[in-house]
Amino acid sequence: MSNDSTQFTRLPETADEREDEGRATREEVLDFWAERFGVPPETFADHTFWERGAGKIWCYRGDPPSPVDVEGLGMAFLRTRQEHWKPTLEAVQRFGEHATKNVILLSEGEATAFAAGHDQELDWEGDWGYLVVTHDLAGRVEPIGVGLYVYGELRSQVPKGRRRDLDDDSNN
User: Fold this and answer.
1) Do 13 and 87 lie in a common domain?
2) What sequence ranges are listed for the domain DUF7122 (predicted)?
3) Beta-carbon count within 10 A of 156 CB
4) Same structural domain, 122 and 161
5) What are residue 87's DSSP bridge partners?
6) Whole-angstrom Cα distance, residue 153 to residue 148?
7) Do 53 and 71 form a contact (C-beta atoms < 8 A)?
8) 151 in any annotated domain
9) CATH number, domain at 164?
10) Which string of DSSP letters, residue by residue, matches 61-121?
């Protein structure tokens, strides 16, 4: 089944069930989260994955029939059909607490800069690429977004409309 930008179509379970060679499978999505971030596949046991358009993967807790002709279904989850798959801010904030790999913990000042959309030079001993960015909030480490780490720099991937200047006193 080809990608239709007007409806959601469930991802095939495996490559053997795939009709469109460029399309991600449920198995590949689970493998990506497990290999890149250490999130166990069973974390997504109650969720289905859907594509709308080319490479825009959505996650839904439940099992509606496929295809579904609606404007939104669950949450935007992952961008595929590019060289490096990119998790969305929403996916990291929802499932990032399960990550055990490629997680960077930011100090308060670093987290404030990250939330405002600023790139910053940071030391990181892990893999380059997309990271789950976390911060200690009220004594608990919480995922706050997706960062891209390359060449000694953490690049904020917080979408422009979601950025916040937390240093600005007028926000209080």
Assistant:
1) yes
2) 2-74
3) 20
4) yes
5) 78
6) 8
7) no
8) yes
9) 2.30.130.60
10) ES---SSB--S--SEEEEE-SSSS-EE-HHHHHHHGGG--SSEEEEPHHHHHHHHTT--EE
Question: Could you tell me if 66 and 132 lie in one domain?
Answer: no
Question: Which of 71, 91, 111 lies at the terminal end of a domain, its last residue?
Answer: 91
Residues 6+ apart with CB under 8 A from 35: none
pLDDT in tens, 67-80: 766 667 789 999 99
Which structure tokens are listed for 101? 């790999």
Alpha-carbon torsion angle 39, 142, 166, 162, nearest 10 = 30
Strand pairing report for 120-121 and 103-106: unpaired
Identify whether residues 114 and 149 lie together within a single domain: yes
Single-letter amino acid, residue 149: Y
The total domain count for the chain is 2
What range does the domain containing 152 cover? Answer: 102-171
Q: φ, ψ for residue 78 (rounded to 5)? A: -160, 145
Does residue 4 sit within a domain? no
- 55, two tokens: 């490479």
Say yes or no: 84 and 110 in one domain.
Answer: no
Q: What is the pLDDT of residues 12-23, one digit of tens each?
A: 999 999 888 888
Task: Identify the residue with better confidence: 62 or 157.
Answer: 157
Which residue type is seen at 28? E
